[in-house]
Specification:
This protein is of the alpha+beta class and 192 residues long. Helix content is 48%, strand content 21%. The chain is built from nine helices and eight strands. Helix 1 crosses helix 2, helix 4 packs across helix 5 and helix 8 crosses helix 9. 25% of the residues are buried.
Length: 192
């Protein structure tokens, strides 16, 4: 059941009471993104947070040379937003696009802010999420700078084996910071 996934995710933080989670779930709306459809595009302002129920998304920006650089892949049971835009209410510089058909649960920023103003547990929850995002970003930077591509790929296979085959090579190579040819050579060493 859809509610079970988000409920389990929220309970895992040991911050929110069941009644608070119930209130949150009532504020959610469902959204389906078709393959290659956008959650948000560069120049838009993000005013919602999504919980990924199924499918996967990629976050990317376009370089000065016109290349799409995938810097984040979001898998099920994760929260996702154009975070800088969500916080600042300024237009985003990123694009968030469905890699596969993706089912989301959406909450509007205004509703999230109302929860936060009414209950300090939500403020603490948001702080915890922000801290986790920072840690993930730092981990990703260290991984790109300290690990070779084979180790980065192995880590992705270990953590997301069921999704790795569904990600187009060009996105996966960009995410790993390598060429598609290099990725093809690395993949030959792995069995699924």
């Amino acid at each position: 059941m859809k509610d079970d996934s988000i409920r389990h995710f929220l309970k895992s933080f040991n911050i929110l009471r069941d009644s608070e989670i119930d209130t949150f779930i009532r504020l959610l709306s469902n959204k389906i993104l078709k393959k290659y459809e956008y959650f948000i595009q560069e120049g838009q302002t993000c005013n919602q947070v999504a919980f990924v129920l199924s499918g996967s998304l990629r976050s990317y920006y376009t370089s000065d040379k016109g290349e799409e650089i995938t810097y984040c892949i979001t898998f099920p049971n994760s929260l996702m937003t154009a975070y800088s835009s969500f916080l600042t209410a300024h237009p985003t510089q990123e694009n968030i696009q469905a890699i596969t058909k993706t089912e989301l649960l959406i909450i509007q920023k205004s509703k999230f802010e109302t929860l936060s103003h009414q209950n300090s547990n939500w403020t603490y929850f948001l702080k915890t999420i922000a801290e986790q995002q920072y840690i993930e970003l730092e981990k990703r930077i260290f991984q790109l700078q300290k690990s070779d591509a084979k180790k980065r790929y192995a880590e992705l296979v270990k953590n997301q084996p069921e999704f790795i085959q569904k990600i187009p090579l060009q996105y996966l190579a960009s995410y790993l910071g390598i060429t598609q040819r290099h990725l093809s050579r690395i993949r030959k060493d792995f069995t699924f």
